[in-house]
Amino acid sequence: MPYEGMIFRPPSEAESLIIQTTVGCSWNKCTFCSMYRYKDFRIKEYDEIRDDIEMAKMMYGDDVRRVFLADGDALVIDTDNLLKIIDTLNKDFPNLERVSTYATPHNLLNKGIDELKELKDRGLDLVYLGVETGDDNLLRSIGKGVRRDEMLEAGLNAKRAGIKLSVTIILGLGGKEGSKTHAEETARLLSDMDPDYVGALTLMVIPSTPLYNMVKSGRLTLLSPIESILECRRIIEDMDVTDCIFRSNHASNYLPLGGRLPQDKDKIIKTIDDIVKKNKTYLLRSEDMRAL
Fold first, then answer.
1. Domains in the chain and their CATH numbers?
2. pLDDT class for 292, splitting at 50, 70, 90?
């Protein structure tokens, strides 16, 4: 498939066909993120996307069951055009089971419930929302562009439309200075949002980002591996969700964890406590093995 620049996707989309509908991210202001920093944002023309779908049809036939719409901002596309893209996917891939995409909070707030419901009815089954933190001050400092209440409303909009909601949080985002508040407020926001999936990433400091300069200047002190998994423990312990799959299996994490909450909460906490109390640091991923 012809892609412009590097392509990113969630771990759970490893087997999905990736169709690039936008190049880059229309927001592109988050201080920790370098994914689309060197791409000039644009929405691809429908004919370009149609050609990519036709190429995929020739390559994979009817075997495509999942499609992920890249890059970072497919939901910014006008709803009528996005529906046209999804309809084309459904027509060309008769065994298609799921269409998914990243979503910015601005996307989910701007679309409105009725538009999101129509997208769901036509095949948009799952969105990935970068929550990162529930701490209002931290949301502001990392450049997310929304307040805590707006982030909550964005997630709830997806759920109200019947779209499955997968959110990401970033361990260590507040450094040592803000770890307690970050953990408490993130757990509170996740409890209020009640997503279907939560993916915990661990902060990776990328030289090309504003966050890197904060670390270099001493304004942000990074967590140690043990402090990072203890922050994860606090979030899991305080989360009050209905039925949520939790994962920390991203390559950035020091410790892969997983389970269904609330059923597996005690088991996950016990795993962390066992590592910390018995100093089983050999079970943690080394710094040079971590990756974006």
1. 11-283 (3.20.20.70)
2. low
